[in-house]
Amino acid sequence: MKIKTDRLTLRRFTPDDTEAMIAINADPRVMECFPSTMSRDETYAHLKRIESHWTGNNFGLFAIETPENDQMIGFTGLTIPTYTVPASPCVEVGWRLTPSAWGKGYATEAATACLQWGFGDLGLKEIVSFCFAGNTRSRAVMKRLGMAHNAAEDFDHPMLPPDSPLLRHVLYRSPLDARASTTR
Predict the structure, then answer these.
(1) Other CB atoms within 10 Å distance of the CB of residue 107
(2) Beta strand residue intervals within the chain, DSSP E
(3) Over the Cα atoms of the chain, what is R_g?
(4) Who contacts 157 (Cβ-Cβ below 8 Å, separation ≥6)?
(5) What pLDDT shows up at residue 68?
(6) Exposed (0-12), middle (13-18) or buried (19+): which is 78, by Cβ within 10 Å?
(7) For 15-56, how does the pLDDT look when each residue is reduced to its tens digit (9 = 90+)?
(8) Which of 33, 76, 107, 117 could cross-link 135 (Cys pair, CB 3.0–4.6 Å)?
(9) Contacts of 74 (CB under 8 A, 6+ apart)
(10) Peptide bond preceding 89 in cis form (omega within 30 of 0)
(11) pLDDT in tens, 109-142
């Protein structure tokens, strides 16, 4: 399964992506809006969960690759959260990129392709996204994707302790859209 955009290839993860994903998950800049960076073992477990999600749902997170040099720069895709949020049950679009890929529009381009795939090929009626309220970069991507924020749906993340500075999350929704379907 691959999705191609003007500048990117979204594809299933391979074992060759492991070291790059370990580096991304261990980078404090990437993980500043998460409770902590991820260790090597936590990244292995994360990649296993990604594969398991694909197996169980026939969709999931893609590795993002820049075709000009076949470099894996992070991930994007669609997942079903394993915990309850105000939109549950739902499908979430998310992304995580290495800092060298920031500021180039890659997250928006990749997530747009995932929305098109979800609404077109998968027949989803709604896709949501959420993040820590202070994550201005991800919130900007959600706005560029045309997703709508309703402050009444902001929530305290159920997997974080009540005293976490990252507790408050914002929820954005993207209803069914008539965008063109993707190419595979």
Answers:
(1) 26
(2) 2-4, 9-11, 61-66, 71-79, 92-97, 126-132, 148-149, 155-156, 168-175
(3) 16
(4) 132, 164, 166, 167, 168, 169
(5) 73
(6) buried
(7) 999 999 999 999 999 999 999 999 999 999 999 999 999 999
(8) 33
(9) 24, 63, 64, 95, 96, 97, 98, 101, 106
(10) yes
(11) 999 999 999 999 999 999 999 999 999 999 999 9
Measured between alpha carbons, how far is 129 from 78 in angstroms, rounded to an integer?
Answer: 10
Mean pLDDT of the chain, nearest integer: 92
Is residue 115 classed exposed, middle or buried when 0-12, 13-18 and 19+ CB atoms within 10 A define those classes? buried
At 154, is the secondary structure helix, strand, or coil?
coil
Under 8 Å between Cβ of 42 and 26: no
Tokens 């969960």 locate to 49
Using the Cα atoms of residue 44, residue 45, residue 50 and residue 51 in order, give the sign of their dihedral: positive
Q: What is the DSSP letter of 36?
A: S
All domains in the chain, ordered by first residue: 2-175 (3.40.630.30)
